[in-house]
Structures are given as C-alpha cells and as structure tokens.
C-alpha cells in the first residue's frame, strides 16, 4: 500500500450528510488540502441537483483545497481528478483496459458508470476560489438502475465487474497518492499534459454522441476537448464548443 502524500490532510467520518457539505463547513479552518471520507452519507448529491445513492462499502470523499488561480483554471481540476481516479482503479485491479473517462467527469468500467465527480467552488471576496471535489465510486455495489435517469449508462460496481475487493480507506490512500501526482503535473506544466492524458483514456472519442445542455440537444462527433476542457462536437451545423452538458452514447 502506498504512503499518504505529503502536504495533504485527511478526515474519516462514520456518517455525514454529504462530504461536500462537510468540506464547506470545514474549508475556512483547513490550511492544507484535505480529504474528507465518509462511510455513510445521508444526503449525498450528484451533478445537476440529482441525488447520489451510496450503498454501504462504496467510496465517498471530498478533497477540499484553496488553489490561488482564476475560476476557469480551478475548474480544470475535474480532469485532474478523473485521471487520478483512473490510476487508482488501475492500481486496484492491475488492469487499464476496462476503464474509460466520460466527459465531463465520469469513470466507466466495461461501459457502465462506476464513478462520478462533482466540483463545487465559489470565489471569495479575497479573490481565492476554494474548491471541493466530491468523488463517489461504486466499490462493492451499484445503485439500482431505477435510480438513474432514462438514457443514462447503467451503474456498475468494481467488485462485481473485476473481483477486486477494496475498502474505502484503502481506495482513499491510492486515490490521494495518484491525485497528488496529477495535481503536481497540472500546477507545474499546466493543462496540456492533463488534457493529452485525459484524451488518451476518453470514451467514444471520434464517435457519435449526444450532448444535452440546459437549452439544447446536439448530436455529432466527439472530436476532442479544447484547452479550456470544453467538449468539441462536430455537428451538421458546424463545430460547437460545449462548456457543460450531459452526454449520452
Ligand atoms: O453525479 C455525479 O456523477 C457526481 C456524483 C458525486 C458523488 C460524490 S460522493 C462524495 C461527494 N459527496 C456528495 O454529496 N457528492 C459527492
């Protein structure tokens, strides 16, 4: 098992409403980037206000940090976190090929949804933008298909799909180590290496996908992501750069 990365704190909770809420409560008191892990969440949330169901034994944690960067740069941490998750999962299983990254920030296993990431941040009067990166991974059980939106990928879990049995604490350690590595690359070299690495692991790159934004639904070819992390979709009406959407295959 790898060593905990220098400079990162950790809190382990038996139960909490949401590790994202706990991060918001603690943020002003935390000097160092800190992981908050909970074995149970009573009010977990997913992207776009959806509930996040968390069967016991699954992984739920939030990394809270205070990057001193403009909001658009801070937001690119979703790709940093996706890569860290990917590597931690490869470390658990010894295999890379069943995993893929789905824009903007899901991790797929054998084509099903294994993990999700939710970023929350707000710029403070002092110009800093504290960031919380909430991560949920179905380690031992997937929520029921009935709990997911129509058209969304079926949820899967690591244990059933790969036979790998990992506790949330063990997974946190792997994830914290891989996150620190990708964070270091991001802050040292900028977004370019993160972008390249993300694209190398991307699901459905070069293939037809559907992107549903708040006001629109676009169908086209997933060409790439740009230097801001936007989805570049080539449609019959031209090339679109999409900052936020739900993607369907
Ligand atoms: O919709 C998604 O795919 C994102 C899911 C994020 C879930 C995690 S679990 C830990 C953290 N706490 C929450 O309430 N949500 C995130």
Automatic annotation (TrEMBL):
One of its GO terms (cellular component) is cytoplasm. Keywords: Biotin, Ligase. Its EC number is 6.3.4.15. It catalyses: biotin + L-lysyl-[protein] + ATP = N(6)-biotinyl-L-lysyl-[protein] + AMP + diphosphate + H(+). It is an enzyme of class 6 (ligase). Residues 1-187 form the BPL/LPL catalytic domain. Pfam families: BPL_C (PF02237), BPL_LplA_LipB (PF03099). One of its GO terms (molecular function) is biotin--[biotin carboxyl-carrier protein] ligase activity. NCBIfam families: birA_ligase. This is biotin--[biotin carboxyl-carrier protein] ligase. It comes from Falsihalocynthiibacter arcticus.
